Amino acid sequence: MLFQFEGVTKTYGSVVALDNLSVTAPAGAIGLLGPNGSGKTTMIRSLLGLTRVDRGSGQVLGMDFKHRQLDIRRAVGFVPEDECLFPHVVGVEFVTYAGELVGMSTKDAMQRSHEVLDYVGLGEARYRKVESYSTGMKQRLKLASAIVHDPQLLILDEPTNGMDPRGREDLLELARDLVHNKGMSLLFSSHLLPDVESVCEEIIVLGKGKLLTEGNIQQLKQLHNRSFEVRLKADARPFAERLSALGCGAQMRDDSLLVQIPEGRTQQLLWEVAAQERVQIRNLRPQRSTLEEVFLKALEQA
Amino acid sequence: MPIFDQGYQHWKGHLSGHAWRWLAVTRHGVRIGMQGRVFRAVLLVSLLPAVCLATALCLWGLAERKSDLVTTIVQFLVSAQILSPGVVDDPRHYRLEIWTLCYNFFLSVELTLSMILIVLVGPNLISQDLRFNALPLYLSRPLRRIDYLAGKLGVIAAFLGLSIIVPCLLTYALGLMFSLDFSIVTDTYRLLLASVAYGVVIILSAGMLILALSSLSRNSRYVALFWLSIWIVSNIVSGVLETTQQVQRRNAHFRQVHLAQQTQAGLSREERRRRMDALRAEQEAQMAEFETQQLEASKSDWRPLVSYTANLSRIGRQLLGTDACWEKLSEVQPSPMRKRFVAQWSGPRYPWYWSAGVLAGLFGLSACILSLSVRSLDRLR
Description:
The structure holds 2 protein chains of 2 kinds. By secondary structure, chain A is an alpha/beta fold.
């Protein structure tokens, strides 16, 4: 178990940031989704013991987040959303200092900072002043400073905001590598669903401080038994019209056709119609919800 | 074939406990501070008074032993009226007083140099962290706000300790070595404790004040200007207030003498000369009386409280017992000159706890400002 919340409520004046939130997250890569003001940042701060909750209890890596905040922060690496720097230092000093703040000796922190800077791809820029780094480099620098002490849990808060596609892909690749090859658990908070989907196996969706849905992404993107995505070699319109005439729902998408088969019929119908229309089916697969659909559906239900 | 890229490796080292976490912030601040050339130069200059103090204590140690090495120097100091013959005749009797005054002069100079050191290193301490939004980086690590502030205060303490407390300790040891008389420890250990305590007062007061100012702005230049205004402008205002009061008192006091001088018209030369002599003697007496009155008036004068450094000086004089030393040294002066001697050399005599109150108030205000400005991550945007 990575972390667990039980009936956690946190209010800021009249604003309810977390509303009786109960959630359990397994080890691995967890995506934290939710619209603005849904309580994602408050949840992360509660995890780190940076904010005092009004009610409820919880644990992070088996430690009570109300009483062992410093121990939790020692076992966790956090990459904040905002642009933030220790000023007037070069890259390697930045990461060394981050290590020292966690409790590493200067020698260990220095040695380790060289390793992690190489790992995140900032080896060449390690002796440059951090103020001169680009946005992508700053994000990687923050990642390096968050993993310098080899945390069990890494929390990334909107890590790809404002990054160019190349930098974004590099950062996601690093996150994937840390989770899948290095055994680090990850809590990935982002608005960008493709980013979450490319890194995480599980998601937690929050809305107005409440848990809207949680679970394995593949399971949430459930298969639809009567709905198929069909790609044809030829023009799909006659094929779609023929299916409509037989009582099927047929909807054109970008380069495919989404077909709803009526009760009592099977996908064999598609092959029969294709044969009759003399068109070749290039691709046929049951429709699967996208993460975006899962997310929007969860919000609608709320 | 060597492996150049090992990728990510797990780390199995040891993490220290939380108690000394602030020390990492201090070490980092000291490293950053020492990068400035001007600052390093001023820090070096601030050590020069320590050399003078050490020299003075060593010379006094040799003078106590009646060493031939310092005979010429002692004679010179006596002829230049820097030392009284009475003091030189029995140097051991005035050991504590001479040591105290040496430390007092040293600490007065260091107080000024400390203000310069602080203006060079202090403004950046928190304002730059606010400017570069570094607080989330600090507070999301196992570091409490109090650790962060203690670490920043530690930077000031490190530099001021190096220029004030360390020289006090080293010169004390050097003075002991040159006197070769270990009764000096029983005579002067209180002085050592007092000078260290005074150093701690300066560090805590000035450190908290500059941290509070530094937390008020993201631009460290404004912080530096604010600090200079607290230091220099408060000194000027206090000086103007004191001088104005002093001039008014002087004018009131000497008005009668002037009136007497104006009534000399029409007198014979002999009569005028006789009257002038009498007036001169009267003037001397009036001056002595005026200075005594000044000394008395300074016991209830609040004007020096306006100056930040005057308050620190007053606490320093109280801790070191400087005024008592001047009193004792006045024993070797001719009897009529004693009060004047004390009035001339000792500083304002208002109650020391007034200054302690002002400094405590500033300390409290600084703590409040820091508490509001350096907010926990809970209240950060």
